[in-house]
Amino acid sequence: MGFGGQLRTWRRAASRRRGRTVTQAEVAEVLAKSERWYRGLEAGATTRRLDREQCDALAELLRLDRDEHHALLLYNNLNTADTSTAGDSRVRSALRLLIDKQMPDPTYLCDNKWNILAYNQAMADWWPWVMEPGANLIRWALTHPEARAQYHNWHQHAAAYVRLLKYALAGNGEDPELLGLIGDVCKDADVRHIWDTVHEHSVNRDGHVFKMSLPALNWEIVDVVSHVMYPASLPDCRLVVITWWTNEDDDEQDPLGGVRNAWTKEPSTPVEQKAMKDLDNSSRRRVAHTGTWRLAVATAEEAAALAGDDRMGLPVLSAMIGSDTQLTLSPSTQSVIWAVREEDGQWGISEVDAYTVIVRMPHAALVEAAREELLLLTRAVLPAEPGQAVAEIQQLVPQLQQRIELLKTIHRDLREIDKTLPAPGTLPTRSDLPPPVRNRASQMFG
What we know:
The chain is α+β, with helices and mostly antiparallel strands.
């Protein structure tokens, strides 16, 4: 029925919703047009299109919902992505639930100027700056000293973020907030130099693999991947999930099977561009040892057998995760077979580094019943050769002891200020465990 017929349909629906007739004259007034002009528009006698302001005003008068508003924009050859529903509380609540469900992977939602709108607990634990008022990814990455400490080869990352800013500027060069952000980061001399010398543009950092050292992981070097998605209900926003694993030995290839740090150089020649286009995404994204390798077996025994002949069960840690979880350590590969019983009775399998289990269960260190299993995991993380293991221990222990002494000093100082604060505690015993964990630990250990 065409655009004119759709306008008549929307106007009749608006009349029913308002309980009165919405006239053509009323619509024409909102559009700042004559009634005759609008009658011609509904009759299909004019091909003139509405601009964005007119569409927005018309959508408000006719009480169009989000999808109808988008359809109105499309009828007038306008980009629907410019219409954000970020203020819709239902949409924000639904996305917040999705973000929380990504635990333990750090996940956040930001707008098209990289302002942080929502995040999960893992994101807050790894990068506490997201909890600060006005948190902005680009501003933190380019101007904050801790970003320079956490990113390996910060200048490469700064160049990547500058390419993102230049892409945003190309499509929205008059946005005062974007211009303000660019002005803020370019006050830094290093960033200004990169801005003046980098001329490429990037849409996003989806699939980028990069190295970071994070305080939350005891400054362990990890490979991090950012997975960028655009929620259909919030087209102006980005939903980013961070996955990670400990550093691999191969310095030439990243863990996704591509050339390490390939994202630092944009394809420029026709040959390079064609090669990137023809590259099979599935092969680029192949992961073999990062917690995303998945298969399924029929029984828990089959799952445990995947850890090899030297396998060691981790029943207490398994129980702490959940009743349908089984962890089995493979000392020879320094990995853990993480099995989860699924709805069909099969056991879904993931293989993760032993260190991953330690980092993802920091509370286990306070559970006495888990001590032996943590010892096994910690030994698996250290070099297999005893001399090398001892050398690494000798390096780590003084550092950790110094941190403990600092914490004790702070604790003592705080207790001197407030005598009601508790004294240093002791490790929980098995009786202190939650009932499900205590019962399973008793079954395993007697």
